[in-house]
Amino acid sequence: MPECPACQSVQTVKNGKAKNGTQTYLCRECGRRFHPEAKPVAHSEATKEQILQAVHERMSLRGVQRVFGVHRNTVIRWNKKGASEVRQTVPVCLTPPEEVVVELDELWTFVGKKKQARWLWIALERSTRKVLAWVLGDRSEQTAFKLWDRLPLSPEQRLKGTFCTDLWRAYDEPLLGVKRLTRKRETNHVERLNCTLRQRLGRLVRKSLSFSKSDEMLEASLTLAFHRYNLSR
């Protein structure tokens, strides 16, 4: 029997046939199903970038598979890898403390089905239009505290800055003691960003078949989306 390409075990058995009629095998050690004569397909970095750009311009994974001929599982793997590489990148706010204006808002989405709601909390710095921090969770005060803790602001910037929100009560405790504005027009920029996200990411569209199947994939897609967004500012 052929050797497993994943763990190099020889404990393999026949396991059906591929679409073209050739024999496939299953490794009893690691569970890998493989074709002994399969050759890896190499994709250039330019192709990967083009495909990831298509995904972040509202193209579905199956649509990418049909147009580019790259399997959706490969695209998912690239997406997760790209997110892991930029996950540690934290934007730095260099705005003088007195001029810091941060707009905060929440955006609804779901994973799997609409009963499994997720809320995306976003903090946008008004002068640079950059996303300073974001967090996925419910719409509770605990998630608001997580967003507040992730803001890359110095103690002086937090004390002298201005924070603009809606009247949602979850902001009351986290923003206690800082300058807060709750007028509707004060959150125009972050609400416009919400529209941009729904336009570019199919998984955030309210009525669509392109929804997130897992929290991991939703977080990976948002990580790359915000990274690309901040680079364009």
Automatic annotation (TrEMBL):
GO molecular function annotation: DNA binding; transposase activity
Protein family membership: Belongs to the transposase 27 family.
Biological process (GO), any one: DNA transposition
The protein, known as: IS1 family transposase
PANTHER family given in the database record: INSERTION ELEMENT IS1 1 PROTEIN INSB-RELATED
Keywords: DNA recombination, Plasmid, Transposition
Function, in words: Absolutely required for transposition of IS1.
Pfam families in the cross-refs: DDE_Tnp_IS1, Zn_ribbon_InsA
Record-annotated InsA N-terminal zinc ribbon domain positions: 4-30
